[in-house]
Design brief:
With 87 residues, the protein is mostly beta strands. It has no helices and six strands.
Length: 87
C-alpha cells in the first residue's frame, strides 16, 4: 500500500507562509498542502529538523492565528517535510 493510500485525511493544495518554532529558533517556510491532521512544508535544508521532533507551527496568513503543536513525521531530504498536529 502506498503512503498516499494510508492517509486519514485528504490533502488540500495551498500556498501559505508558515512560521515554525523549534528549540528557541523561528523559521518561515512555504506550505505545499494541508489536511485536517497536518501539513507539508517546503525546506531546502532539511538538516534543521528530524523525524519525531516536536515543533510549533502557525500560519502567517492572518493575524492572531493559533499556534499548533506538531511532530515531524516525514522528511524528504532537501525538499521538505510533513508535520502531524498533536491532538
Amino acid at each position: 500500500m502506498s503512503v498516499a493510500n494510508q492517509r486519514r485525511h485528504e490533502r488540500i493544495p495551498h500556498q501559505a507562509n508558515i512560521q515554525l518554532r523549534a528549540d528557541g529558533e523561528i523559521y518561515t517556510f512555504e506550505m505545499r498542502d494541508f489536511s485536517e491532521s497536518g501539513l507539508y512544508l517546503f525546506c531546502s535544508d532539511t538538516s534543521i529538523v528530524s523525524p519525531q521532533r516536536q515543533v510549533k507551527v502557525q500560519t502567517l496568513e492572518f493575524e492572531d492565528a493559533p499556534i499548533l503543536d506538531a511532530t515531524v513525521v516525514r522528511l524528504e531530504e532537501n525538499i521538505g517535510f510533513a508535520v502531524e498536529f498533536i491532538q
